């Protein structure tokens, strides 16, 4: 804990009864500037990109580890620090806006495969982040966009290290696919891909960095850092954070979601601190081994609005997929037919966002109906979706 954090902690003892002091600190989708408890892994990651410190371009590398092991926190912090300390302050993390500052000969870019989930999306993300000129989204072929990126880099003698996060998910692509897209731009682009599984057979990245799950004490440190920054003084006890860390079983995403939901329970009760019931409610609101909230919120607008209505339906409206689709399609802000909603629901089940659970039929004939159960924290999803 540095001086800034110690001063902020003391400022929180000023008698203000607010429970939450910093929304981002307790947001499971947000990352701290400095990842907690990941020093050895960070060293191995820095080894993998070491040529960048001498104005070189590293070999393609792959960072992998189980869900909730802090991979995204590591690479977003890496991009931020490399951009500020190594490549002259140019930072271009792909969002909906473009950076306007002129880039040096070497740039470091972050791309979320959940948003840039195709070859076109990859090229667009990198070119849009690097170039000040508007990049067309329509009326241009993927090959033409790649050629434009190649030409832009070669004309300016530029090179770029692209960090591609969340590869290998049902809605994205394998790490090998990402590196293959940049192979034609030889000598100008290197990649750091980030996923959950070991490298594919037949794909041999230059460096592989494995990220282990958090041990219980490290996960306690992660939760303590978040609570210290985001909550009022004495709003949560250490033993409560230790309980969440033990329940999280090495998964920081689930543990942070549980803390987020526990804080929500306390706010709903008008409390200025968490009691044990709030902590229990927070853990109960997060399915173990479920789908990360970030993956759900990265779905298309149509899929997200279908899910937003699904999580508010009562039991009678969820007795079968057909009944659920009719209830969702009837909502005034859903501009989709019953058939389209049905298709979306089945697709979400195929992708593992929802579970299909068989229910007892009135007769023994025909295929038994099924209802849909979300595989993510519906409370965290509602709060974050509504706040967006």
UniProtKB/TrEMBL annotation:
Pfam families: AAA_16. SUPFAM superfamilies: P-loop containing nucleoside triphosphate hydrolases. Residues 35-167 form the Orc1-like AAA ATPase domain. This is AAA family ATPase.
């Amino acid at each position: 804990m540095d001086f800034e954090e110690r001063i902020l902690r003391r400022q929180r003892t000023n008698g203000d009864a607010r429970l939450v002091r910093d929304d981002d600190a307790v947001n499971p989708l947000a990352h701290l500037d400095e990842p907690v408890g990941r020093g050895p892994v960070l060293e191995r990651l820095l080894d993998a990109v070491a040529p960048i410190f001498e104005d070189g371009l590293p070999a393609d590398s792959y960072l992998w580890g189980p869900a909730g092991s802090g991979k995204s926190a590591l690479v977003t912090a890496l991009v931020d620090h490399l951009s500020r300390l190594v490549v002259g302050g140019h930072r271009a993390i792909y969002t909906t806006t473009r950076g306007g500052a002129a880039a040096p000969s070497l740039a470091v870019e972050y791309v979320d495969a959940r948003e840039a989930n195709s070859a076109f999306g990859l090229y667009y993300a990198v070119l849009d982040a690097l170039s000040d000129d508007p990049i067309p989204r329509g009326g241009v072929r993927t090959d033409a966009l790649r050629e434009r990126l190649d030409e832009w880099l070669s004309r300016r003698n530029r090179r770029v290290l692209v960090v591609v996060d969340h590869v290998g998910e049902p809605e994205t692509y394998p790490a090998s696919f990402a590196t293959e897209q940049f192979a034609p731009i030889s000598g100008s682009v290197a990649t750091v891909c980030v996923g959950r599984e070991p490298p594919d057979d037949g794909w041999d990245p230059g460096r592989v960095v494995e990220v282990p799950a958090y041990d219980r004490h490290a996960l306690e440190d992660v939760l303590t850092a978040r609570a210290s920054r985001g909550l009022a003084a004495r709003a949560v006890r250490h033993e409560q954070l230790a309980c969440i860390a033990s329940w999280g079983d090495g998964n920081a995403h689930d543990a942070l979601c549980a803390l987020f939901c526990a804080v929500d329970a306390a706010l709903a009760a008008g409390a200025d601190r968490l009691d044990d019931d709030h902590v229990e409610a927070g853990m109960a609101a997060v399915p173990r081994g479920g789908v990360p909230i970030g993956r759900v919120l990265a779905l298309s607008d149509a899929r997200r609005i279908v899910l937003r209505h699904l999580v508010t339906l009562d039991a009678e409206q969820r007795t079968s997929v057909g009944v659920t689709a009719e209830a969702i399609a009837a909502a005034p802000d859903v501009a989709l037919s019953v058939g389209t909603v049905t298709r979306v629901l089945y697709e979400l089940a195929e992708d593992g966002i929802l579970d299909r659970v068989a229910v007892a039929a009135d007769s023994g004939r025909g295929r038994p109906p099924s209802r849909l159960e979300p595989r993510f924290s519906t409370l965290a999803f509602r709060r974050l979706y509504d706040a967006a």
